Amino acid sequence: MLDIRWIRENPELFDAALEKRGLAPHARKLIDLDGRRRELQTAAQAVQTERNDASKRIGAVKAQGGDAQELIDEVADLRDKLQAMEADEKEVAAALNEELSALPNIPADDVPVGNDEDSNIEVRRVGEPRTFSFEPLDHVAIGEKLGGMDFERAAKLSGSRFVVLSGQLARLERALSAFMLDIHTEEYGYKEVSPPVLVRDETVYGTGQLPKFAEDLFRTENGFWLIPTAEVPLTNMVAGDILTQNDLPVRLTALTNCFRSEAGAAGRDTRGMLRQHQFNKVELVSIVHPDESEAEHQRMTEAAEQILQRLGLPYRVMMLSSGDMGFSARRTFDLEAWLPGQNLYREISSCSTCGDFQARRMNARFRSEGEKGTRFMHTLNGSGVAVGRALIAVVENYQNEDGSVTVPDALRPYMAGVEVLNPDGA
């Protein structure tokens, strides 16, 4: 959530930032609502003071044996007036909160301005795409040859946008997950967590998926939300907390199932595993001092890049434009792995810094030593990485003409030394 005080003090900058997001000006409406809220607060405080004074006079009059009925009636009238004013203030505050809750984060100054992915900027490329002596297949054709990727059986069980992995491909998926977690915990200091995948309204609100993106999520009949990413429970682990500065940074990682309705992606990537309703992902979350968030964004991106580098996957780093970023992000770096079966780079990780946007929604604060007041933490999140997409990238980049897939060196310790996935080994 955005800071209304900053908006009051910088209305033109705020509207200019919203324009980068493709949104109309909102400063005037927000400032008017905030002004009305503050007026009601001030007036209510004045009425409360008047009521307190009248109440004290009642005691004094009674102590002198006088008739205090007029003062008693006055106090009752002031009480009714105060209750009405507090109700009005609560209504205006709710309206202001609703307006602020629907607005995205403000882009960082270096974020390219644009409406969509066409305005994204390539930061760097790492690795060269392999030159094949044969026409490379996509992961669906490879998976079918290996016998461990079954979309028809998944459709029988659950419908479209699901897959059943079995045999050596299921093992490869498990190996990728364990490999990623080991890198992040042992080398980058992330603490492994196994969080719930069913969460409450306030949890999804805290990271910005509610109220605006409810249609992108799955909800159970008894009111739980299936998480779209482990960012949701991991970031909310500090919701409502006041940490000390010495508690920071908090770095968390988790392997979870993720669930997305893909409501806004009808007709896109319907073939294969690229866009599923259910998928596995290793998530990275950092909760840091505001002074450290810029450096932490680079560090988190490096951690995700390490996975791709050690798997020997060619990739590029893209800075997303203001119109392509997620709702809560100030800046996002996408890692896009080369997929020879599509002859394209495709997203495999997004690493975002959110500033204090999510912390305000969660009321997550910290206190520096020797200071009375508190400040909002900064939060970051990134895919470290999407396991299914990593599997796609591995099988496409390491495919052989006979339909087999060479196992990358980094994964062989997790595959009991298996070096090749063969079509007859499913």
Can you tell me about this structure?
With 426 residues, the protein is α+β, with helices and mostly antiparallel strands. It has two domains: 4-101, Serine-tRNA synthetase, tRNA binding domain (Helix Hairpins), CATH 1.10.287; 117-421, BirA Bifunctional Protein, domain 2. 39% of the residues lie in helices and 20% in strands. The chain has helices at residues 4-9, 11-20, 27-63, 69-101, 139-146, 151-158, 167-186, 201-206, 231-235, 293-310, 357-362, 387-397; strands at 121-126, 149-150, 164-165, 191-192, 198-199, 218-219, 225-226, 242-244, 250-259, 278-288, 315-319, 331-339, 344-353, 365-367, 375-376, 378-386, 405-406, 420-421. The strands form five sheets. It has an eight-stranded mixed beta sheet with strand order 1-11-12-13-16-10-9-4. Strands 5-7-6 form a three-stranded antiparallel beta sheet. A three-stranded mixed beta sheet has the order 8-14-15, with no helix packed on it. The longest helix is centred in the N-terminal third of the chain and has 37 residues, at 27-63. It is elongated.
The overall pLDDT average reads 95
Number of strands: 18
Major sheet characteristics: 8 strands, mixed
Strand order of the largest sheet: 1-11-12-13-16-10-9-4
Q: What gross morphology would you assign?
A: elongated
Give start-end ranges of low-pLDDT stretches. Answer: none
Task: Provide the gyration radius in Å.
Answer: 27 Å
